[in-house]
């Protein structure tokens, strides 16, 4: 249960102001069909994070516990720094209407936008950290993504304008920093 709660909290915070959250806002503004967008985000996230979690579990088996501890600690600290760099959605990443409809466009756009993103990397690290709780990590990171993105789809920019993104990023950075330090000194 710890893996689920930690994964949910970390990803929900990490996703605030992230480019995939901006993508959710853009999809909502463009298509104005919240249910297919939310279901598309869920589908893309569960597939992406299941793959990322599998990579994290695999890395744990390949590396020894001591090496993994240092890599994870350093990765969490690097993630803390990365949280302080705001994301933006480039114009060329704007989803266009496609033959796949709103759901399909959302799945494809969201899956691709999540590749190499903070939350995907966090999923890899969390799956490596909680190696025996792969399913709980993926469930938690997926829930965290949905907690951050579904309200944006329904409430749009009203919600985004009221949330102090810099504060959320700072809190997230502190959490990642603490996790990184704890990981390194726990050996």
TrEMBL record:
Superkingdom classification of source: Bacteria
Principal subcellular localization: membrane
Any Pfam family hit: GDT1
Protein's cellular compartments: Membrane
Keywords, ordered alphabetically: Membrane, Transmembrane, Transmembrane helix
TM annotation in the entry: 34-55, 67-85, 134-155, 167-185
Transmembrane helix listed as a keyword: yes
Lipid bilayer topology: Multi-pass membrane protein
Family indicated by similarity: Belongs to the GDT1 family.
UniProt name for this protein: GDT1 family protein
Taxonomic source organism: Variovorax ginsengisoli
